[in-house]
Design brief:
It is built from 24 helices and 29 strands. The radius of gyration is 26 Å and the shape is globular. The longest helix has 28 residues. It is of the alpha+beta class and 779 residues long.
Length: 779
C-alpha cells in the first residue's frame, strides 16, 4: 500500500486569485460559460476540408465522425475534440512545451525549463515514421482541425481562457510529439533516488529485506559512488512531473480477455479499465472515426489522434501499464573545462577518462507579468542535467527513452487502430514504445492475445540505483521487439494483467523489478476461472468487484488476537461479520483503511527507524507475511508481540475512524467518507458533486487516493463483445465535454457512480438511433 501523489490539478494560488478577482457570481460564471458552448447542430464552415464531414453525437456525448478521406477524418477529430476540450488541450500543450509560466506566472519557471530539456531533438524523419508510415499526414490534419476551431471562436473561447486572461494559441505539428505526458508513467528515476536514499540511511541488506524486488535481485550500488545526499530533490524539476502540475503517475489498471469457450456467445469478451487521476475534465475522450481504412471507436487522450483502447471492425484492444525500466539517473562529475577544452569558462563533465564539454542551449521562457527569462539547458551524453550538487562537484542527468524516435505517448495507436488480425496487431504493437503497455487483443475469428509492448533498454546492471556517468554504465541498445513477452490463444483461454508481474515462467529478460501488488490480478483470475458462460453483464460486475484480498488475510489475525486478549466491542462484532467486500454502504472499510496504514507503520518503523519517513510507504505483501507469520524482530515471543502491535493499531484506528464517521459504529457508511471529488481547476462554480465510492486501492474496482478520497482509478471503462460490437459498453467520468454548462459536462457522472454503463454504439443503424446532435463540417 502506498501514499498516493496529489490529485492531478493545475491548482495554484495564481489560478485561485484569478477567480477571486472575477466579479461574477457563481451563476454569472455559469451563464457566461454557456455563451461559449460549441455548436453541435447544423452546419459550420471549416476551411481546410476537402469535402463535407458528418458528426453525429450520441446521447452520451460520443462523436461519431464520418469522412470521405483520411485527411478530413483527422481534421474533424481535431476540430471536434477542441469543441469539447480546448482548454484542457491547451494546458496539455503548454505543459509539454514549457509554456505554463506565460499564463500562470513565474512559479512554473523550473517546470517549464524541464519540459524544454525533455523536448525531442533527434531525427525527425525517424520520429514521424516510427508510429506509422502516414503519421505526419494524420497529425498535420488533426492539428489543422484544432486550429480551425481556434480560429472559429475568435474572441469567445471557453470561459477558462477569459478567467485566466489569455487566448488559445495555434498549434504546430510537433505538439502531439511532446514527451512530458508519458514521463510520469515511467517513474524509474524516482525509484532510483528513493532507493539510494534508503541504502545510504539503512544499508544495502536492510533495504533488500524491507523493500524486496520482484524477481528478487541483490542491489548493486557501484563501488565508490557516494549515495549520501541523493534524494528526490536530485531530480530537480523532473520530480514535479510526478506531482500536481502534470499527469500523476498511474497507480493501477486492469484488463482481461477470455476466449469463446468461457463465454455464452462462443466469441471472446474483452474488458479494460485503465486507471489514472480522477479529474475534471476527464483525462479520456471517446471518439468514433469512420473513413477510408478506418472504422474505429474507443477512448484516448483528447490531444492525440486515434484511440488507445477500443475496437475496429475486426479486433478489440486495451491496455495497462507494464512499467518497464525506461529511465536511469547518472551521477556526473562536474568541473570547469581545462584549457583547450570547450569554451572558456564553460563547464565539463568527466566521461571516458577525459573532460567533455557540457552541451548548452540558450532558451527564453515568457513569464506572465514579467520580462521573459533567459535560461540555459544543459546536457551530457546521457541526457539533460536536472539538478546540481555543487558541494560534491556533481550533477544528476536523466537518461530517458523519450530521447529516442517514436516515443511520444500513445501516438503509435494510429497503427494499432488499423490492425485486422494477430499478425498486423503485433507489427503495430512493435511500434508502441512509450508508455510501456500490456496490450491485449481479441478478434472476431475467436483469437485472443497479449504483448508487453515498449522500448526496453538493455543494461548489464540492475537499474535499481543511480550509476556514475563516467562511461562505464551505458545502455547496450534495446530489447528486440520480437523478444518481448507475448502470447496468442493460451491453453487456459484467459489473459489477465493489472500492472502486476506479468513475466512468463522461464522468461529471463529483466523488464522491471517493481510491480503493482498482485491482489487485483489474482482476484480477477480467480473469479474468471470460477465459472463458464460469461456475459457482458458479468464483466460489468467484475469490473466493480470490491472484495479485498488483503483484508481477508489481515482482519482474521486481528480478530484472533482480540479473542485471545478477551476483547469485545461493537466494532469487533461488525468486523467478525464482514465478508471483506469494500461496499460503499458498509461500515467495516472505514476502519480497515485506517487500521492497515497504522499497522504498517507500527510493524515497519522498528525495522526502519526514522527512515520510514524517507519512503513513506511499505510493501503490503511483506506486511501480510510478517503479521501472519511473525519473526524474531517482534521480540522473544513473536506471536504475543505481534498481537500487541495488531491491537495497538486497532485502538488507534478505531479512534481515527470514529473521528471521521462518528461514535456509532453501526451508522458508518464507507461511501459517506470515501468520496471522489470533481473540482474544476479554475472555478468552484464549475465543480460537480462528489461521488460516493466503494472499494480501495487493492480491489478490482480500484479507488485509491490520499486520505479517504478517491483521486485515482478507472475514469474510463470498456467491455467489448466480439459477437456483437453494438453490445459493447463503456463508461467515462464525468462527461465528454470539458465546457461548464454543456449537457455533456457531467452527464456520465451518475452512471459512473452507480456502476452503470452506456452502449458503445458502432453500426450506422445503432448510431442513428442514438443520435442527439448532427453537425456538418463544410469546406
Amino acid at each position: 500500500m502506498s501514499s498516493l501523489p496529489a490529485r492531478n490539478r493545475f491548482s495554484a494560488g495564481l489560478i485561485l486569485l484569478a477567480v477571486l478577482a472575477n466579479p461574477l457570481s457563481a451563476q454569472g460564471l455559469l451563464d457566461s460559460a454557456k455563451t461559449r458552448l460549441a455548436v453541435l447542430d447544423g452546419e459550420v464552415q471549416a476551411a481546410g476540408l476537402d469535402s463535407a464531414v458528418e458528426v453525429r453525437r450520441d446521447r452520451w456525448g460520443v462523436p461519431h465522425i464520418y469522412a470521405k478521406t483520411q485527411r478530413d477524418l483527422f481534421f474533424a477529430q481535431g476540430y471536434v475534440a477542441a469543441q469539447d476540450r480546448l482548454w484542457q488541450m491547451e494546458m496539455w500543450r503548454r505543459q509539454g512545451e514549457g509554456l505554463l509560466s506565460e499564463v500562470l506566472g513565474p512559479r512554473y519557471l523550473e517546470r517549464d525549463r524541464f519540459a524544454r530539456l525533455l523536448k525531442f531533438r533527434g531525427d525527425m524523419q525517424a520520429e514521424w515514421t516510427s508510429y506509422a508510415s502516414d503519421t505526419k499526414e494524420i497529425v498535420h490534419a488533426f492539428v489543422r482541425g484544432v486550429n480551425a476551431y481556434v480560429r472559429s471562436i475568435a474572441d469567445r473561447p471557453p470561459i477558462e481562457f477569459s478567467l485566466l486572461g489569455f487566448r488559445p494559441a495555434p498549434w504546430n505539428d510537433e505538439v502531439p510529439l511532446q514527451r512530458m505526458a508519458a514521463l510520469a508513467m515511467t517513474g524509474n528515476a524516482l525509484g532510483e533516488v528513493d532507493r539510494a536514499q534508503l541504502v545510504a540511511a539503512l544499508g544495502k541488506a536492510k533495504v533488500e529485506a524491507m523493500f524486496p524486488t520482484d524477481p528478487r535481485r541483490p542491489l548493486d550500488p557501484v563501488p565508490g559512488l557516494d549515495l549520501a545526499g541523493i534524494s528526490p530533490a536530485s531530480l530537480g524539476a523532473a520530480a514535479q512531473a510526478y506531482g500536481s502540475i502534470t499527469y500523476s503517475r498511474l497507480e493501477g489498471s486492469n484488463n482481461w480477455v477470455i476466449d469463446g469457450k468461457h463465454t455464452a456467445t462462443g466469441k471472446p469478451l474483452l474488458a479494460n479499465d485503465p486507471h489514472r487521476s480522477i479529474q475534471l475534465p476527464s483525462l479520456r475522450y471517446l471518439s468514433h472515426l469512420v473513413g477510408p481504412g478506418w472504422n474505429v471507436i474507443g477512448a484516448g487522450e483528447p490531444a492525440v489522434p486515434g484511440v488507445a483502447a477500443g475496437h475496429n471492425e475486426r479486433i478489440g484492444f486495451g491496455f495497462t501499464i507494464v512499467g518497464m525500466d525506461q529511465q536511469d539517473v547518472y551521477v556526473e562529475k562536474i568541473g570547469p573545462c581545462p584549457a583547450g577544452v570547450g569554451r572558456t569558462g564553460g563547464g565539463c563533465y568527466w566521461y571516458k577518462n577525459r573532460w567533455t564539454p557540457l552541451i548548452v542551449l540558450a532558451d527564453t521562457i515568457p513569464v506572465k507579468g514579467e520580462a521573459a527569462r533567459a535560461v540555459s539547458l544543459e546536457f551530457t551524453v546521457h541526457g539533460p542535467i536536472v539538478a546540481y550538487d555543487s558541494a560534491k562537484g556533481r550533477a544528476f542527468a536523466l537518461k530517458f527513452v523519450g530521447a529516442e524516435p517514436g516515443t511520444a505517448g500513445y501516438l503509435a495507436q494510429v497503427s494499432v487502430n488499423r490492425a485486422t488480425d494477430w499478425g498486423s496487431f503485433l507489427k503495430a504493437a512493435y511500434r508502441w514504445r512509450l508508455p510501456t503497455e500490456n496490450l491485449i487483443y481479441a478478434d472476431v475469428d475467436g483469437n485472443i492475445g497479449w504483448i508487453a509492448a515498449g522500448l526496453m533498454p538493455i543494461r548489464r546492471w540492475s537499474g535499481l540505483l543511480p550509476v556514475p556517468g563516467d562511461g562505464q554504465w551505458e545502455w547496450n541498445g534495446f530489447l528486440p521487439f520480437s523478444a518481448l513477452p507475448q502470447t496468442k490463444n493460451p491453453v487456459s483461454g484467459i489473459i489477465v494483467t493489472a500492472n502486476n508481474n506479468i513475466l512468463p515462467k522461464g522468461y529471463t529478460k529483466p523488464l522491471n523489478y517493481e510491480w503493482a501488488t498482485p491482489f487485483r490480478a489474482n482476484r480477477v483470475r480467480q473469479v474468471l476461472m470460477s465459472k463458464k458462460g460469461w456475459t457482458r453483464e458479468g464483466f460489468q460486475a467484475l469490473q466493480h468487484d470490491e472484495f479485498s484480498i488483503p483484508a481477508s488475510e489481515l482482519v482474521p489475525v486481528l480478530l484472533a488476537a482480540a479473542k485471545r486478549a478477551g476483547r469485545s466491542s461493537d466494532l469487533l462484532g461488525v468486523l467478525g461479520d464482514w465478508d471483506f467486500v469494500m461496499r460503499k454502504d458498509a461500515p467495516q472499510p472505514l476502519f480497515y483503511v485506517s487500521w492497515v496504514e497504522i499497522l504498517g507503520r507500527k510493524v515497519f518503523e522498528p525495522r526502519l527507524g526514522g527512515s520510514m519517513r524517507l519512503r513513506g510507504r511499505f510493501d503490503l505483501p511483506l506486511l501480510i507475511r510478517l503479521v501472519r507469520t511473525p519473526d524474531a524482530v517482534f521480540g522473544p515471543n513473536p506471536a504475543a508481540a505481534r498481537d500487541s502491535v495488531v491491537l495497538a493499531a486497532y485502538d488507534e484506528a478505531e479512534r481515527e475512524a470514529k473521528t471521521a464517521g462518528g461514535p456509532n459504529v453501526l451508522s458508518w457508511n464507507w461511501g459517506d467518507i470515501h468520496l471522489a471529488p470533481f473540482r474544476h481547476p479554475v472555478a468552484k462554480a464549475f465543480d460537480l458533486p462528489s461521488a460516493r465510492r466503494g472499494g480501495e486501492g487493492n480491489t478490482v474496482n480500484s479507488t485509491a487516493g490520499a486520505g479517504y478520497l478517491q483521486t485515482h482509478g478507472a475514469s474510463f471503462r470498456e467491455i467489448l463483445d466480439l459477437a456483437d460490437w453494438d453490445n459493447s459498453v463503456a463508461t467515462s467520468v464525468p462527461g465528454q465535454s470539458g465546457q461548464p454548462g454543456s449537457e455533456f459536462y457531467g452527464n456520465l457522472l451518475p452512471l459512473w457512480e452507480g456502476g452503470e454503463y452506456f452502449p458503445l454504439v458502432y453500426s450506422r443503424g445503432a448510431v442513428e438511433r442514438e443520435t442527439k446532435h448532427v453537425l456538418w463540417l463544410k469546406p
